[in-house]
Amino acid sequence: MELALVLILLLYGASDLLFRFLGLGAYAHGSRRKPLVALTFDDGPSEHTEALLALLRRHGVRATFFLTGERARTRPELVEALRREGHQVEDHGEWHGVWRILLPWWEWQQMSRNPGRYYRPPHGLHTPFTRLFARLSGKRIALWDLEAKDWLELPPEALAERLLYYLRPGSVVLLHDGPGRTLRVLELALPRMLALGYRPVTLEALAPRPLTFRLALIRALQGFEERYNRRHGVRRAGLGPFDLFRLEKLPFPGPDLPGLPRGVPAFALHLESQRLMELTPFEAVRRLRQSLGKVAELVAQDPEVRLVYGYSYLAGGGKALGLKAAPLPLPVRLLNGLASAWFLWLYRGELPRPTRPLTQMAYLSREELLALYPPSTPASPPPVPGEGQSPPP
């Protein structure tokens, strides 16, 4: 009996790990090549639905609402209003209680009572039966790749900054129709989102695709990236859809370069690989040039920074962007070579090849960077809203 109980718990745990935490096979984001995003609202309708509708209408935005059956039946006029204004209405189950999901006979009722092309489990929770029941009821499992965290008791301003920091082309954003702060978060973030070049659409218009193992792994690792950014004060050079660099200020670790000894203040460049992963080589070069211009603007604002640098097997090709390349000591080269091979497989699906160039350091001194990518002058247009912000604590 005890063994059977342990096996059942392991099965439930493995299902939740694979299908919620990783999101394997779920519909969690769209193409990274276009600045389309999907705003999705769980748990409605609520007393805030009309205000959310008014805000979306004011900005000409369509969204997707995952409704619970019992709440939808109490406010049919709001469900009709959602459809009338062009929003997508999908299934969030009959109830929102977690315990009803854990028992198979309740989970089947949870998923089969209401219509919908997509089903989003409450809290994203999965049991060993969730995917089977979804298939039997003709529904796709919809998750997300960015949580707005609007259920937390945090200032809406901090939540809006975080949303803009981590928003990517193709993102499916998890919001809630219920908390009062959701409306304020969107009032702050939505105009800036539009100004940055994002275009919110319904989930159907976004055309998400099921996550392969590699894409599911990328989704699962996002939390580690966020913790690293917060711990090390990493900031983005621009918050636009295709601003491709994050910057970490630290002492230059070497090797010594002419006029640039170890220990001088520098910006380490971190590539936003998810924004780059689906771009063609031509698109990538164009976006990298634009992004280095954003880096130059931040360097110009910090007189301490003496250079920018990063490690990549592509460092030699950085000459097309004006970057210089420097060899690395063997231990550093091997370590960064392994990291490059991992990221190349993770984000591009390419396996290591013997002919691939060795990892080098790409760099530019402060003077060279500002000469190649001169920052905007006072007569230039103002920067895009929210540019260069750091993630909130």
UniProtKB/TrEMBL annotation:
> Might you name a Gene Ontology BP term for this protein?
carbohydrate metabolic process
* Region annotation (Disordered) ranges: 373-393
What Gene3D superfamilies does the entry give? Glycoside hydrolase/deacetylase
* NodB homology domain: residues covered: 35-100
The annotated regions of Pro residues compositional bias extend over 375-393
Q: Name one GO molecular function term.
A: hydrolase activity, acting on carbon-nitrogen (but not peptide) bonds
| This protein's name | Polysaccharide deacetylase family protein
